[in-house]
């Protein structure tokens, strides 16, 4: 069994919130609880998060949508290519997170202990 970490970072690449999900679930399923109650002006994400429901919610919020789209999408969205380049911040966060061997290897037996380890690692990353 595998575990996915869905993370939301701020404009500096610092962890704001995350969710653990089973590895066999679609990424877009975990986004609504992840962004619930958080105000933001835009969302930058990869094509795993390209869903009509998420796009509709972001439009309702008035947030800028910068999500790479699946090639089969019928209605293409216009995205800012220069702004999309900032997606590397979340990728960098995951690279820093995987420097912690217990996270990279998913050594914790329970989800609660794994979440605690992620919070601890994020605190260490932010203190650097």
- Provide the low-confidence segments as ranges: none
Specify the helix fraction band: 25-40%
Mean pLDDT: 88
Would you report the number of β strands?
Answer: 4
CATH class: Alpha Beta
Judging from the principal axes of the Cα atoms, what is the shape?
A: globular
Radius of gyration: 15 Å
How would you classify the helix and strand content by structural class? alpha+beta
The run of helices and strands is: EEHEHEHHHH
Largest sheet: number of strands, sense, barrel closure: 2 strands, antiparallel
Q: In order across it, which strands form the biggest sheet?
A: 1-2
Domain count, please report it.
Answer: 1
What fraction of residues sit in β-strands? Answer: 15-25%
Q: In whole angstroms, how far apart are the ends?
A: 32 Å
Give the helix tally: 6
Q: Output the CATH topology.
A: Nucleotidyltransferase, domain 5
- Going by CATH, the architecture would be 2-Layer Sandwich
Task: Summarize the structure in short.
With 128 residues, the protein is α+β, with helices and mostly antiparallel strands. 39% of the residues lie in helices and 18% in strands.
Give a verbal description of the structure.
GO terms for molecular function: DNA binding; transposase activity. InterPro entries: Transposase_11. Residues 2-124 form the Transposase IS4-like domain. This is Mobile element protein. 39% of the residues lie in helices and 18% in strands. With 128 residues, the protein is an alpha+beta fold. The protein has a single domain (3-127), classed as 2-Layer Sandwich (Nucleotidyltransferase, domain 5), CATH 3.30.420. It has a two-stranded antiparallel ribbon with strand order 1-2. A two-stranded parallel ribbon has the order 3-4. The N and C termini lie far apart (32 Å). The mean pLDDT is 88.
